[in-house]
Amino acid sequence: MTSPRQLNRQDRLVIASHNMGKVREITELFSALGIMVIGAGELGLEEPEETGTSFIENAELKAKLAAQSANMPALADDSGLAVRALGGAPGIYSARWAGADKDFDAAMKRVADAVLMAGSTDRHCEFVCALSLAWPDGHCESFEGRVAGTVTWPQRGENGFGYDAIFTPLGHALTFAEMEPETKHAMSHRADAFQQLLASCLTPA
């Protein structure tokens, strides 16, 4: 079995996303590591069609294209909300539930309505995040993080992005959108995947 490839602290890294919420959150996670982070939008990179059947497949697709286009390491995130009463939906289609206008207020209401229509009292859900780190030669390392919670409705909070305002992590009273960023970063699905990536791929200081 080959060893994971290392990301050097002096490297420049492309965040293969045009979602400014994701770019901001990943930049904050990297802020103390001395790695220069650049959003895909700053380089004018295109967003590929997400044709994968899993979070990891979609993250790898985006990371590899960005790394080849920018000729530097690239990190892609594919994440979403999986609701047990909905058979795991919206899952990898979480962004599509928000429509072309990325209206996540409408997407959150759609989730709540779908749970109600399913006639289930089960509000269990998970946030899932796949992070893929790719190099221009096509090599890729992928990691998946999860955090369990419950669907909360009506939505609460103004922080965060996406489905944060309807996700209350287990053992907590606040939704992700009500928490301060530092609190969310300590427990989120993205932080879980990020810590796995650092442990495997970041060269020691």
Describe the overall structure.
By secondary structure, the protein is of the alpha/beta class. It has one domain: Maf protein (Alpha-Beta Complex), CATH 3.90.950.10. Helix content is 29%, strand content 21%. The chain contains five helices and six strands; from the N terminus they run βαβαβαβββαα. The chain has helices at residues 20-30, 55-70, 104-117, 181-185, 189-201, and strands at residues 12-15, 36-39, 74-83, 124-134, 140-151, 167-169. The protein has a six-stranded mixed β-sheet. The chain is globular and about 50 Å long. The protein starts with 11 loop residues before the first strand and ends with a helix. The model has no long low-confidence stretch (mean pLDDT 92).
Give a quick rundown of the structure.
The protein is built from five helices and six strands. The chain has helices at 20-30, 55-70, 104-117, 181-185, 189-201, and strands spanning 12-15, 36-39, 74-83, 124-134, 140-151, 167-169. The longest helix is centred in the first third of the chain and has 16 residues, at 55-70.
